[in-house]
Amino acid sequence: MTSKPNVRQVGVDLQDSEDSRALVEAIEEDNPDVNLIRMPGLVKMQIPGQLVIRRETVEQRMGREWETHEFQMNIVSYSGNISEWDDDQIVIKWEH
Amino acid sequence: MAKAKLSMRERYRLLTRDLDWEPTYVDPKKVYPYTRYEGIKIHDWDAWDDPFRLTIDSYCKYQAEKDKKLYAVIDGFAQGQGHLSLTDARYVNSLKLFLQGVTPLEYQAHRHFGYLARHLDGPGARFAALCQSIDELRHTQTEIHTISQYNKYYGGLHNWSRMHDRVWYLSVPKSFFDDGLSAGPFEFLTAISFSFEYFLTNLLFVPFMSGASFNGDLATMTFGFSAQSDESRHMTLGLEVLKFMLEQDEDNVPIIQDWVDKWFWRGYRLLGLVAAMMDYMLPRKIMSWKEAFELYLEQQMLEGLFPDLEYYGIRPPRHVEQAITEKEYMSHQVYWILYQFSFAASFNTTVPTDEELDWMSGAYPETFDRFYRPLWERARRLEEEGNRFFFRGLPMLCQTCQIPMGFSEPGDPSTLSIRTSQFRGERFNFCSDGCKWIFDREPEKYVQAWLPVHQIYQGNCGGTTIPEVLNWYGIQDGVDNGEYLTSPDKANWDKWHTGAVVGGA
């Protein structure tokens, strides 16, 4: 683990639901390198480095207002560290 | 409604800082008396930050929405005879284990986070603990409500709370949590918030919920994901609290390292029950324990998290390499223990089907055909001859994790592992180096363990015969326990699925 061969992964697991569909699309749009795995009931999204969820993109996809706190309704789990969570975006990345 | 809204950051600051005050006529040490004796030094509680920036209004709004969604599903489940849509009645055994083993822990967590919501010095930390306390109560209630749907049709679910306090395999989760509750507040946070909620939670909940989804259990899947959405907040608290303690004072580092070491192994041993559930109790498998361990523990934690913690001088947990070695066989060893002692359990066990044995050969190519397939084939032969194998007698338990001593030497599945320590002239037994190390750090604590087997021999469990003990456990002999193939659950399931026309009353 000392050699640090590649950029560490971060990710989120979302419920595989109608509500999450627009979110998944928004995350894919803002994070083109994201790798998507479907498990029973779950959509697992992983990416090297960092993952961003932007309010504007989500609102465009949903066609309605969306506040970042609402992300709690869809999230099942995540890996990494929530480095930012404000009115406009959520950023997940390792700090060090 | 045109009034300008405060930003999330500002609302959170007003709630968690502005509403707080410094006590002046009472010594702060008397207001918060429990946050010093563990040796953790905190200089500035204001440095505490909660990335979720939750406020009361948004907390209540979203929690209410989550509950509404869940209860709509539970209604639909009951009205649509959802219990008939499972892959197989055998699946319900994993729910029995969950309700008996995990739900009471949620309630204990509710109580203890309520205590922390009063006793931590910093208002941000207190508010996070308050939200978690309410969450944990919600989880307790929603789990009971959801799984009670099955109690109408299946055995083993009627007496889970009393069982949690008394039954041998449930002393494993109970003693784990009691160990945390009886530690100081900072050790509890490291144990439960960091080690359990951040480090290990994905291994517990995600396979459980995906397993429910894959096995047609809509109700459990929904409560699981509903609870899990809170869990991501708890994970954040866990990581935040660890970093906060590490950043406050360098003297905290060795104390925390010890706790990380201890609680990794404590949690990992507890997850042995999850490993058995994943590989054996789900009729349709989502992934093997080994795959889950590689994904969630090795990839996400050891390769993701620990390089981050290295920055603070924290290294990966002691004994983690033994857990990595055990991924090749741990689930088989635990389920074999459950299989042979299930005459005294409130769930049923059985030999895996041929398809399952083949699946395991594929999932565990290094160990399964060599060590465990022959065991199961022999058990099946005995069962077919009307001689279902149960272990006669009571097992020796590990003094620390309280699991019967059925684990092998690391990397050598054919040799039983036994470690011992002497303390005050007595000998104590352990299943592993990890459990022995934990005991040796705090022997005064672990000599007090309530070991179910010792308690039976001392006459504290309703009597000395099996029927007396089962009665004291609240297990109905022949209904809740033993072999699945001859159980009422199986007979009912077959009756419900014969396709016969039934009508009227």
Automatic annotation (TrEMBL), chain A:
Pfam families: MmoB_DmpM (PF02406). Keywords: Monooxygenase, Oxidoreductase. Signal peptide: none annotated. GO terms for molecular function: monooxygenase activity. SUPFAM superfamilies: Monooxygenase (hydroxylase) regulatory protein. InterPro entries: MOase_MmoB_DmpM, mOase_MmoB_DmpM_sf. It comes from the Bacteria. The keyword Oxidoreductase applies. The keyword Oxidoreductase applies. Belongs to the TmoD/XamoD family. This is Monooxygenase. The gene is mphM.
Automatic annotation (TrEMBL), chain B:
SUPFAM superfamilies: Ferritin-like (SSF47240). It comes from Pseudonocardia asaccharolytica DSM 44247 = NBRC 16224. InterPro entries: Ferritin-like_SF, Phenol_Hydrox, RNR-like, YHS_dom. This is propane 2-monooxygenase. It holds the Pfam family Phenol_Hydrox. The gene is mphN. Residues 408-450 form the YHS domain. Its EC number is 1.14.13.227. Transmembrane segments: none annotated.
